[in-house]
Amino acid sequence: MKILCIGDIYGEPGRKAVELFVNPMKQSGEIDFVIANAENSADGAGITENIAKELFKNGCDVLTCGDHVFDRRKEIEEFIKKDARLLRPANFPKIAPGQGSCVVESKGIKIGVIHVAGQVFMRFHFSSPFISVDEELEKVRGQGASVVVVDMHAEATSEKAAISWYLDGRVSAVVGTHTHVQTADERVSEKGTACLTDLGMTGPYDSVIGAEKEAIIQRFLTQMNIRKTVAKNDVRFSGALVTVDDRTGRALSIERVHKKVIK
Length: 263
Ligand SMILES: [Fe+2]
Ligand SMILES: [Fe+2]
What we know:
six-stranded mixed β-sheet, Purple Acid Phosphatase, chain A, domain 2, single chain
């Protein structure tokens, strides 16, 4: 089973990159299953029902989010209650709509996807992702998942690396999202858990992590809340390809994916 994990899809340029690459990669047999982080897919902040549907149509099988999940609350609240393939971090307050894990069948294999968020340097007070991830793991195993991938949405590399070792040998892969910058620390442990602490951003790189540079420079200079807009240029598609042994659920390899969209 070849699973493509896509890092934070940023605005329309990121969505166009998904449209360009994902279904063709599926059709060519390069990948079987796709997990994409979509917390910035609507104008750089949040996700809407229409955008979620567009990403599913363009080949994504499960969508994860993060701290920005409800930035467009009115346009996603009802949909996230209905469609189990759209996740919010499991360690959000239980009262928030949506779920932190799901099980989806692909080619006869049950794949569990778990989404948690970090506590270090995050703007919300998430409960412990370590405790949440155990609860969700029990849930997806109970639903028969033999392959399990975790999206740990966090700022600190240390917290993401720590959770990958906490889950060592218990899940197929732990991938990180949120920083929008791909790390170069991919590895498969001896016990068969793949890890890359950040998948990077799928969106415009002629930017400050997706947004037009000038507004962000002015924000830092003036400390005023200047409106940011989605940048346009140097669009790239970023993530990782994890190959998993279907029978054992162990990861066999992990490769970084980072391609430019040539106009
Ligand atoms: Fe993000
Ligand atoms: Fe985030």
